[in-house]
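To: structure subgroup
Subject: Chain for Friday's discussion

All,

I'm putting the inputs and outputs inline so they're searchable in the archive.
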Amino acid sequence: MSRKQERYQTKIIKTQTNMRFQSLAKRPRQFLRFTGFTPAEFTELVETIRAEWKEVRTSRLKQDRIRIVGGGAKPILTLLEDRLLVFALYAKLYLPTLYWNTFSVLMNQRSAASFRK
């Protein structure tokens, strides 16, 4: 690996560690802006989901596996809190934009269709 690639990898790792639950929860106002939850509400949500999450993960493991458990690529986000944080960020920041773009495209198609008549 070249030095340029090593520097790029360390930048990625630093960026990833900054957006973890533990670091973002220390800034409650930013946490609320990014996710729509306070850190306390988010912790309650995580605890509500945690038991079912473990059941789902164990039920997905097949008994007739070709590879052993633990083989393959390791996930970057190992904690449930971090995974839910990424989903909350996605739901808060990206989905409204997606809905707005879809709505505006539909409205433009409808208005264009009305001009053709």
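Points worth raising on Friday:
The CA atoms of residues 88 and 94 lie 10 Å apart.
The radius of gyration is 21 Å.

D.
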